[in-house]
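Case study 2.
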Amino acid sequence: MSVNIVLLIVGLGIIFLAAELFTNAIEWFGKHLRISEGAIGSVFAAVGTALPETMVPIIAFINGGKSNHDAGVGAILGAPMMLSTLAMFVTGAAVLIFASQGHRKRSIQADYKVVGRDLRTFFAVYLLALLAAFLPTKALKLAVAGLLVLFYAWYVRQTLLCPDCENAESEMRPLYFRRRKEVPELVWVIAQLLLGLALIIFGAKIFVNCVSAVSAALGISAVVLSVIITPIATELPEKFNSITWMRHKKDTLALGNITGAMVFQSSLLPAIGILFTGWGLSDLGHAGIAAILIALLASSVLWGEMMLLKKLSPYSLLAGGLIYALYPIYVFGIAHGRP
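Prediction:
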């Protein structure tokens, strides 16, 4: 038991470090392609930080077995919930803290065309992924998976080609492989990308192999354990990036980094889940359905404020923390018959 816990932590640590390497490189890759700040945040940085969530379920499904199956489903469903709740909460708290220190204003000055499109797309595709669980045949579910992939392709195209979106330049962190170079060569960017990817796969294998043993020893469903702990490691780089960008008043990049990952993880990851599993109510379970509903609720709060008030405040971001608390209350309380 203790050995598995240590290995689980090691696996999460490797994923964390690898995601940081990969994200840092993917931002520079976007810069080399002369992509706008909104697109770098919503597509390149978001995909980079979402990659670990993609590798964990794929490896889990390839390994096979009921516990690995549940761990894979949990990894798919945990990331959108974490991003739409805790990631937003941390970002909102950062805005208020930095404002109190005089580093920025309390108001969020983001490109709401980018953020609004992300939130609308997330809500639509994730709701579609939920509805797929109620479809009676595998063929219909696969058709939904195809739609989810097409939706994401459309989203990427709209983000990259958006003529009305902001194109402000942002200060880049040095590439880890070439810290003394103001603009690192593309070959070094690609080399860091590949190393980050390799480490993500290595860390994901360690994680998947240990999560089943730990969940069984603790008497917790592998779905619940994976929903809760997988994003803690795989989303940390994303949260830290967004906090840093908020301090430097790069609100579009900070929010796009989160909302773009939400779109990726609500479309391509469920499509992977549909492909490898039955994606029915029995596969998702009450814990999986709850994770989807909580993510949809949290995104609705943000989307609603933008629609009604034409802005996004740090206080609506903070509400994500309260909404996230509903999940452990449900799965560890009501769902198990405890007060």
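The radius of gyration is 19 Å.
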